[in-house]
Amino acid sequence: MGNEANKIVDWKNKTELELLELVYNYASNGLRYGKSQKAKEWLRNKKLTVESTMASFNSGQLHHRKEKEFKEALERIGFMKASNVGSNCDSVPYTVFGNFSIMFPLRNEKNEIVNFFSAGIKNDKTAFLNMKGLYPGYPHEQTKKLFVVDTVMDAATILESKVLDNREAVISLYDGVFLEQHVEVIKSLKHITEVIQIKRKK
Question: Are 85 and 34 in contact (CB under 8 A)?
């Protein structure tokens, strides 16, 4: 057990997919088992659960007390950025994507995490880490009816409602914007009979 704890990890050769999975596991555990009462309260107020929506909590502290190589790996995938703000200590200050936010994972066609959507707990400010993937994921190939909604939060609400049957699915746009991956997934669904786009009222 002690040897495992002291095992040196080659962070430079970790892939983006491996690092994003690691971030999600950390943030997911932080919400499920941590003392993040504000995060849990935020979800309760939105009437969302971790189990239905795959929500996680980014406390912004994943890199604290970690080695330089680990921080550089997270910087490589865009999850952190070295800050130019002066610091009184020797360590390099970082800005963290989705700091103190609820994060939802976006996935590729292989169901691998490729992106995050974050919603700030204090201000509801939202952001995407990049422009990859779909939330909650690529619809299963037997999907007959597909709901297309404007935002990740809209999709999370539908997932939580449990209204979808086993031949129905939902995907969210990027704040109302159709991207190539949305068009391609709709074209790829061989059994699709109905695509319903639900627009938010402005």
Answer: no
Structure tokens at 195: 């695509």
Segments forming the whole domain that contains residue 164: 2-198
Q: Pick from 119, 143, 132, 112: which is nearest to 182 by CA?
A: 132
Q: What dihedral angle (degrees, nearest 10) is formed by the CA atoms of 163, 169, 173, 175? A: 10
Write out the two tokens for 5: 């704890």
DSSP β-ladder status, 94-96 and 80-82 = antiparallel
pLDDT in tens, 119-164: 999 988 999 999 999 999 999 999 999 999 999 999 999 999 999 9
Q: What is the DSSP letter of 9?
A: P
- The structural domain count of the chain equals 1
For β-strands 113-120 and 126-128, DSSP reports them as antiparallel
Structure tokens at 147: 């709901």
Q: What is the mean pLDDT of the chain?
A: 90
Interatomic CA distance for residues 146 and 132, integer angstroms: 20
Domain harbouring 187, CATH code:
3.90.980.10
Q: Is 140 helix (H, G, I), strand (E, B) or coil?
A: coil
